[in-house]
Amino acid sequence: MSVRGTVVKLDRSLPLVELPDGSQVRCEHATELVKHGEQRAVIGDAVEVSEPDAHDVAVIQRILPRATQLVRRDPKERTAEQVMAANFQVVFVVQPMNRLNVRRLERELVLAFETGARVAVILTKADLVQDADRARAVAEVAALVGADVPVLVLARGSDEGLEQVRAMIPAGATAVLMGQSGAGKSTLINRLTGQDVRKTSEVRAADGKGRHTTVSRAIINVPGGGRIVDMPGVRGMGLWDAERGIAAAFQDVEQLAAECRFRDCAHGSEPGCAVQAAIQAGTLSQQRLDSYQSLRAELHQTQERLRQQSWR
Ligand SMILES: Nc1nc2c(ncn2[C@@H]2O[C@H](COP(=O)(O)OP(=O)(O)O)[C@@H](O)[C@H]2O)c(=O)[nH]1
Ligand SMILES: [Mg+2]
Ligand SMILES: [Zn+2]
Known about the structure:
The protein is of the alpha/beta class. The protein has three domains: 2-63, CATH 2.40.50.140; 69-230, P-loop containing nucleotide triphosphate hydrolases (Rossmann fold); 250-311, Probable gtpase engc, domain 3 (Ribonucleotide Reductase Protein R1, domain 1). The protein contains nine helices and 13 strands. It has a five-stranded mixed β-barrel. Strands 6-7 form a two-stranded antiparallel sheet. Helix 2 crosses helix 6. The longest helix is centred in the last third of the chain and has 26 residues, at 286-311. It is globular, with a radius of gyration of 21 Å. It binds guanosine-5'-diphosphate, magnesium ion and zinc ion (ZN).
């Protein structure tokens, strides 16, 4: 006998799986799953588990196909992917407005778009910047993400933005929070739940980074709404399979590139390069082209390593 469940918590001990009756059980992986190349359940996975044993531990027999997944390159291994979360409908990319990092945002957007889920950007800490800087940051990000991606703003001491976040996580939906430590992810979850369900940490003044207080990944219920996943400890965000993500995050560049005279234009000094023409005209920044090309190069490198590995 087995039952369906959802992985709702991952920490240093066994995955916690929520069963249809609402109870939760610690689970081990069936040896068949782990034997052939580390098939482990991730947060959000739908799984089939056996009845718990006398020690209240059940066994994950099967991981069901994932509707969506967030994947990065395994930071410890150059040619392995790492799935970080599964079966969510929304990805929130969170950045603090007082330390907006556009290059990082571009990378996060590639990873977010690659999932195929809806994407929104949340700019936190609006209370820490002047109104003019705030308007500039929102405009800059809105231009970067395009019209289809909402840009929401959060500030301490104000409820603005919070309802918009809530509206994107209706009952039945699951959202994933992506963003550097210190960005305000745990704070947002606490505000959504009205409880201190996640530990927050002071950021270091020097670099604005938070200490990693939370090590567990968990799905948290939003009262009156859906669920949200806090993903702490995400330092490296290397690209794995990200063709679609890059295409979505850099639509502007790719649209221009489609108009270059040569199909394989490197957007350098080729004649008839629409990308260079846009840079000359000031409608595309050199920095954005640089990001695009370096993310593509990173992806290419990963694919190349994978090819070499499978050759051996
Ligand atoms: N001023 C201000 N501080 C914030 C805001 N959101 C989060 N913080 C602070 O930023 C620090 C890091 O927040 P935390 O939620 O732990 O970030 P996380 O690492 O992304 O989970 C904490 O000291 C929070 O109190 C905000 O909107 N305004
Ligand atoms: Mg946190
Ligand atoms: Zn070109």
